Amino acid sequence: MTPAPVLTTHSLLAVGFAIPMLFAPADFLWLYGASPDDYGIYLARLFGTALVAISIVTWLAREAPEGLALDALCIGLSVGCMIGFVVSAHHQLTYPSAGPLGWTTVGVFAGLAAAYGALWLGREARRAPGGLQVG
Asked: What is the model's pTM?
């Protein structure tokens, strides 16, 4: 596995969630079963800004060379996505009224955590002479 497809996918997912969080947070959070007040909308917009930053970083890092910076990105995003998985799964299990859309968030976090973990664990194979052979 190479980093580019994972980073590209993450970038597109992040911007896809950022746009409604920034421009229609109440409508978007309603899909998750939330009825946010003014503070909830404010926090959703702050989360949207963080997603924009993640989208830009992951998009620009798609072609990053092997090395410490790519390792740091993969382990940091893996840990962050693992925490997101735990938080979102706990919420879904604790508040069943959150709806089925919440399970997609659980799945996205699980998939990204696993993909970044695999990238980090496979870094030595990609760096070996000849690199990782695909196909």
From this structure: 0.84
CA distance 69 to 65: 8
Give the sign of the dihedral formed by CA 84, CA 9, CA 49, CA 17: negative
Radius of gyration of the chain (CA): 17
Tokens representing residue 77 in the block:
């995003």
Q: What is the pLDDT of residues 29-76, one digit of tens each?
A: 888 777 789 998 999 999 999 999 999 999 999 998 888 899 999 999
